[in-house]
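help with these tokens:
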Amino acid sequence: MQVSLTPGEWWILNSAALIKFPLTFIVDPELWVHYNRRMHGLEPFIILDSLERLFADGLLEAEQWTSQDVEIHLGSLSRDEIRQALDPETKGELWRAQYCLTAKGGAAWEAFARPYWEQFLLEEGRVEEDSMIWNVTAADRKWLEYYRSLLSTDNKNEVPATSSIVEIGPWSPTYWKSLPRGFRIHYRETDETEPYAYSVEEANKKQLLFSGLCSMRDSWCPGAR
């Protein structure tokens, strides 16, 4: 699917490719804190115009955020509703309304971004008994094997290296995308019990390994950053 997008429309669509965000974040003066990406530099009226078209064309939809983390579907928003949702002082169902891609919006994003899902790594962590439990999922087994080896070396943690790779069925790398199968490792992260003094050589190696991990995480779609 190929659609024509303005730079502003592309920024908004791209910003929601992996995570849903409140509409108020788009107009926050400290936008970079929320998105960890370059600023859009858009004037308020361009933001409003861009959002109106994306909602009207069915590329975006909205959900209501609640304190119970229950997402209530709001669907498309009118221009007036978008204006209200952009205002952090708005009360009612549009308070903290999140914008997210529809299936049509996801297809439009893929047509521009050209993601390579085989290299996407989904890292999900949770705290359990004062330690981190990790699930790492990928569509390609060899890619996951290589990432697991870098994790083990970088963290001086042998657990990822010994964690079995399990094939799973259909899974979702992001909220709107489904892949037919994937591979997953599950492990508990262990902390070093004593401070470790790195030599210059070891510190340089660790930095290279960290850079390698970051490159693997981002290589699936450079245009998504």
Q: What stands out?
A: The longest strand covers residues 121-128.
